[in-house]
Description:
Mean pLDDT: 88
Order of helices and strands: HHH
Distance between the termini: 30 Å
Structural class: mainly alpha
Largest sheet: none
Strand content: under 5%
Amino acid sequence: MALSYKARRRWALVILLIGMPIYVVVAVSIANRVGVSDLPRFVQFVIYVALGIGWVFPLKPIFLGIGQADPDADPEDGQD
């Protein structure tokens, strides 16, 4: 079942305001527990970049088209 435009907008907002801070805390905590800080700086950089970009791919369908006008809206609603 595909999400409507409004549902995707709401989920995107929830993900960005609640999910992202939780993800950042969990990712950094796991990285510290594993011992990433003992690795060379370049390897640390690669790991943190991968963690920073990795969350996007599973959530990409939710964020697609969010910045566009509502495709289901009436064109006569005053939006130009």
